[in-house]
Design brief:
This protein is an all-alpha fold. It contains 3 helices and no strands. The radius of gyration is 20 Å and the shape is flat. The two termini are about 15 Å apart.
Length: about 60
């Protein structure tokens, strides 16, 4: 199997990330927390607890690839 490595050069980094670095980490922490709190109930509804048999089948399939 041929392995190919790809990368992005540093000067081509997304300008939004550069702008984000200029803002304080505290702002993002508060913003992240506000966002999480706003979607928490919806995410809890999506949470699933699969049975051990289901997990075993997924693992067996992934090992067979």
């Amino acid at each position: 199997m041929l392995m190919i490595t790809t990368s992005t050069s540093v000067p081509n980094v997304n300008p939004l990330n550069q702008q984000a670095e200029n803002l304080s980490n505290e702002f993002f922490n508060d913003l992240d927390l506000m966002f999480y709190e706003s979607i928490k109930s919806q995410m809890d509804q999506l949470k699933r607890n699969p049975e051990e048999e289901t997990i075993s089948k997924i693992l067996a399939y992934s090992r067979s690839l």
